[in-house]
Amino acid sequence: MKTIRTIAALVGAAALVSACGGSSNDVGKELGLQNPLIHFVHAIPSAPTVDFLVNGSALQKSIGYKGVTNFANINTGATTVAYATAGSTTPLASGSFPDVAKGHEYTVIAVPGSTGADIGLIDDPFDKGLLSGSARVRGFNASVNSSNLDLYLVPSNNTSISSASPTLAGVSFKNAVPASGQDSVYVSGGTYVLIATTAGSKTPIFQSSPFDLANNADWLVTSVPIGGALTQLLPNQIHLLVAQGGNTSQPALELTNTLNGQ
Length: 262
Prior knowledge:
- The protein has helices at 2-19, 24-30; strands spanning 37-42, 50-54, 57-63, 72-73, 77-85, 91-100, 105-112, 117-124, 135-141, 149-155, 168-171, 176-177, 185-187, 190-198, 204-207, 211-213, 218-225, 238-244, 253-255.
- It has 262 residues and is mainly beta.
- Strands 9, 12, 13, 17, 18 and 19 form a 6-stranded mixed sheet that branches.
């Protein structure tokens, strides 16, 4: 009888969340029932097409720069991840998640390092409330040529940050804010502008054109070096990419910097 009541409660919660704009997958994640999900983001300008490897085997293939793969199910437990030149299983860079868990989302990012390919890893526990329709946002710094960054998500009709606090503060190279293992930041849907500054500064080094952020969106905002040889880049020459989570594969959205025609 208890099992029947539990199933009924879960069905009811799924129906309510769907009516509010969520999904049954969100219910499964929130309750820790959904199988672990993983996807890959290619954030190395001018890099070759790669295959995404999980435990030594190609999970997703032929991913080019700005490519964002669909979420895919993986098993729980210790998991090794890597990426390799397409058609190869020799990693260009690799890492591991020590204890992959149900209900979590995992992101693997191909990152340009100072001496070669590098990797970024994010464990997202997906602690979204069952009735929440808010968008989820996280920042990641894949710019070896940048200082720590503050990212401001501000309404498009008021872009002054003089008295604003960063939405995502002190995003350091190869790290996320909120940090891996912590939940994303939640914001309401709307029309926004993204502004990046050197951490602690109020002088923008990047300011996007206005864009729409939908309710229930799942965004990873990643800074990347402007394309070209890293040795030729000046400090803080960056672009911002938006990798949108979900099960519809689409390239990362590259936001246009409105400052100095960049």
